[in-house]
Amino acid sequence: DWFFDRIAWGFPIPLPVDGCRFTTLTHVEDVASMLASVVAQNGPENDNDDRVFNCANDAPLTHLEIVDAVAESLDLDPKAV
Fold first, then answer.
1. How far apart are CA 32 and CA 21, in angstroms?
2. 10, 23, 57, 70: least CB-packed within 10 angstroms?
């Protein structure tokens, strides 16, 4: 929603560095489901576990690709955003 709102209203899109860094767009319900699965599999006895879990989808996009896709979905020229 953040990208859509800013582009639709003509606000600038601050991007990290040059916009070519990768990120993923993962729905909050998917992240919650992934984290619940980890807790269910490991049980409460592992609460102090120091492992890190990456909860994301497997389709990385650059920030520029996200801006371009959002602009095109709003029938705007991505170069003008």
1. 25
2. 10
Other beta carbons within 10 angstroms of residue 7's beta carbon come to: 20
Residue type for 48, please? Answer: N
d(CA 37, CA 40): 5
Single-letter residue type at 65: E
Q: Are strands 22-23 and 61-62 parallel, antiparallel or unpaired?
A: antiparallel
Q: How far is CA 46 from the centre of its chain?
A: 28
pLDDT digits (tens, 9 = 90+) for 22-42: 988 888 898 899 888 887 776
User: Is residue 17 left, alpha or beta, with left meaning phi > 0 and alpha meaning psi from -120 to 50?
Assistant: left
For the chain, the first-to-last Cα distance in angstroms comes to 16
Q: Dihedral of CA 26/29/31/33: which sign?
A: negative
